[in-house]
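If your schedule permits, I should be very grateful for your opinion on a structural question. I have a record of one protein: its chain in single-letter code and its fold written as discrete structure tokens. Would you kindly read the sequence against the tokens and tell me how you understand this chain to fold? Thank you for your consideration; the sequence and its tokens are set out here.


***
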Amino acid sequence: MKLLNSLCALGFFCLVSSAGFAQGFKSLFNGKDLSGWTIHGTEKWYVEDGTLVCESGPDKEYGYLSTNKKYKDFVLEVEFKLEANGNSGVFIRSDIEGTKISGWQVEVAPPGSNTGGIYESYGRGWLIQPDPELDKQLDPEGWNKMKIRAEGNKVTSWLNGKQMVSLEDEKIGAANGFIALQIHDGGGIKVRWRNLRIKELK
């Protein structure tokens, strides 16, 4: 009986902890279709086995999948798995016209390519790159968890629980826009995504 009570107590504790952890977050991807998102360009975006997949198409150009809603201050969590060449990224506070995007990309890329760093497209280029030693945080074959916190002028990224970069920038702070996933040009790229969720900060 004591063992049963202990197990029940442990189960209740885990349930409460899980509920508390998830408090304030909402899912951006339903695991079934692309509801709430808009495709930009001719590259492939589709759902397979409950995961969101981006894959190079025959045009081998840049492509984006953006939220239909703009987000200013938030904590974003995503999981990604690199398949083939995994050159991709997560854009924040962005605007898109055709396949030209203005905004800031938190890099998602193969080993040695600054995953977790922040890049400004059609602007200043790399704003900050992680310490090369942190590249070991990236699992090139399995699932990786990325967290991005954007609040005011400050953006911080984490990869698999380790802080990668933190940056304060007035230009980023003044912006508001969409969250967008990227597929790089050049062809041969495939990345899977899952558990995309966001918590807006008041």
Q: What stands out?
A: The chain has one domain: 27-200. The two ends are 46 Å apart (CA to CA). The domain at 27-200 is CATH 2.60.120.560 (Jelly Rolls). The first helix runs from residue 2 to 22.
